[in-house]
Amino acid sequence: MTTGQIDDRFGDPTAAAPSWESVEALLNRAELYWLTTVRADGRPHVTPLVGAWSDGRFAFCTGVGEQKHVNLQHSPLVAVTTGSNGWKSGTDVVVEGTAQRVTGRERLRPLAEAWWRKYGDDWAWDADDEGFAGGDGSRPWVYVVPPAKVIAFGKDPHSQTTFRP
């Protein structure tokens, strides 16, 4: 990512832009994310989910019967958010991009390992050529979101910084 561009219209004029490294560290550490997809009729669908920041992209999975999967068949445009709900502390991050399905055992195995390193046995997946495979028989598809734009919202002082590839 490039150096962030702080937008002085939306924050304290004394605020400084965070480094991309600090924003990426936050994306990597986050335990919970919120995924926004778009239904066929244009209504948004927002859901919390686990995921992994891997190789500069957000990765997530979804069952083929879930609403987010149905929505992605209509439109792959998504927003991913994470942060905290405090007003005076932390940083919130929004990643905008296009979800891309990942297939092939050689591409999926490192993502399954990233889930295990982050969440342990709670989210231990095997990988095959089509997606993840769970011990309970689940077969979620896996997607990555290369960022088209990342916005970091600082809270102390308040600021808005945009990063683009």
From TrEMBL:
UniProt GO molecular function: coenzyme F420 binding; oxidoreductase activity, acting on the CH-CH group of donors
Protein's UniProt keywords contain Ribosomal protein: no
CC terms in the record's Gene Ontology section: cytosol
Domain Pyridoxamine 5'-phosphate oxidase N-terminal: 21-122
Keywords: Oxidoreductase
Superkingdom: Bacteria
Entries under PANTHER family matching the protein: HEME OXYGENASE HI_0854-RELATED, PYRIDOXAMINE 5'-PHOSPHATE OXIDASE-RELATED FMN-BINDING
Name the UniProt record assigns to this protein: Nitroimidazol reductase NimA-like FMN-containing flavoprotein (Pyridoxamine 5'-phosphate oxidase superfamily)
Source taxonomy: Bacteria, Bacillati, Actinomycetota, Actinomycetes, Propionibacteriales
